[in-house]
What we know:
By secondary structure, chain A is α+β, with helices and mostly antiparallel strands.
Amino acid sequence: MNTNQKIASTMLVTRLRQLLVAVLSVTFGISMYIFMNSFMAGVNNEQTEITFTSMSHIKVYNDLPFDVTPILPNPEDGDGTVLMINNARNIAYTEGIKNADAIKDAIAELPEVTAVTSQLNQNVFIRNGVSKTSANLSGIETLDEHQLFGTADYLTEGDLYELDRRANGIILGAGLARRIGVGMGDNVSVSTSDGISKTFKVIGQLETGAAATDKTKALVSIQTARQLFSKNKSYATDVMVNIKNYNDAPQVAKSIATLTDYKVEPWQEGNSQLDSANILRDILALAVSLTILIVAGFGIYNIMNMTVNEKIKEIAILKAMGFSGSDVIEIFLTQSVVIGLIGGLTGLVLGNIVSRVVDNTPFEIGIMETLPVEFRTYDYVMAFVFGVIITFLAGYLPAKKASKLDPVDILRG
Amino acid sequence: MTALSVDHINKYFHEPVSFHVLKDITFDINRGEFVAIIGKSGSGKSTLLYLLSTMDTDYQGTIHINGTQVTGQKQNKLAGFRNEHIGFVFQFHFLLPEFSVLDNVMLPALKLKKKSKEEIEHKAMELLGMLDIKGQEYKRADRISGGQQQRVAIARALINDPAIIMGDEPTGNLDTKNTKTVFDIFRQLAKERGQTIIAVTHDDEFAANCDRIIELSDGVLV
């Protein structure tokens, strides 16, 4: 320890109460920063997880073309021609994806992609005697589907893979089954918009927690669906892709778009409300926690300022003895940095404790059991860095002031 | 040999009104001299001392200390110079109250870093012994009596063996007995160690016993 640090530490330990208050304000600021950000990250994750139980990161489907070129070019000015087209329409000439398997294989080659599956989605009517309801029938590839959405885990009854073994098997959303009053083993009749009907046996029930899905979803195997809608072997309406990091979806979507002419849609495009809600929550958490840290910084500034005023004679005497301005800065800056480091470390511990307590707080709504908290090293590093930077700044200003003091003014009295 | 030479010093105060404090002051002080600066309140004697101490740099004219010109040097450089060559004793002891007596005495030497910590400690103990403050070394500086504090301040001023010791009314706050002690110490330092002593004082008896008296009246040498 050099002389300046010795002076700094003596000044600190002889005013333990002030030291404690200053340390506590940093501790509080940093722990709140950690807690707020961990909590928000947890909420965002939970939200995204629920979303991705029925939605993939990237979806490939047959969309109406965006830019519709006019059937006739605009007449050139001045030749007196009038262009009139009545009732122009943008017509989809093809339906769905004819060669889904080829596209699927090509996408699976990309390094970022973790899972691919194709689906055949159509709206149908499901009847059980007199009760009927419209439903969203999905023909799925069970193995790949489970890999993307963890579908098998959401089955309350039955076995997802049973669909592959029984061509007349169907799995209904829990809400849907209740609405038409069927249970396991009951028969339902599915009719398509083309007027084709087929009888299925209920072999499972699905509960994802998203009510809209549970009330409309019906699953059959994709072969059965192709047969029902009289489509070719490789037909699908959607190819669903999951990637390593869902935030990269727009970039990966771009590279998939080079493989196919079909519409490639990252999840953010169709669900900007989710994306914006996530970003807004992050901004809110950051704003609140930074505010807390800055308030803590003002606390330190205040305490250090008081210390400088209190020690004004000592500063003058140190300077008279030959301590330079930079020595004085070092003495006072050391004090605030020590406060920052102690407060920072205890803040990390306290932040972790608070996060753990909240993580274990019961919160039984939907599929959640406790409040969601995400533990990220990044938050802890940032909290510590911000905390130390703020205490440094808060200590620097009073230290600078102290270094500028003219000893003559003070010693003359 | 000249310890300190002052050449045509002029000093103005600008606040609250412009005021000519020191008017064309020139004098030399020799090594080992014990000098008292006297004068009425407002005559500029303290102002002169602070110029000599290198803490106040706002003046015209030049000051040499030990052959080094201190006029025109940067504050940080002057701080180092003070540390090594000038010892200070004030009217109020101005010790650092949270530190022990020993730490207070050692600080300027620890700052100078010319000797090891053990040597400095040994030297500080020796000075405290010489000034008759044995047995109080590890007490906090604000827990000893006023006379003792002033003697600790002197020990602190002596720790780096400065060429010049300056005192701004060093006995102003002491009773007769302690004043005599402090005076004897100064006397002894000038005589035995050849250290130059410059003290601003109000005390006529104190001044009368010095080698030389510099008297100021309205900013002019008398």
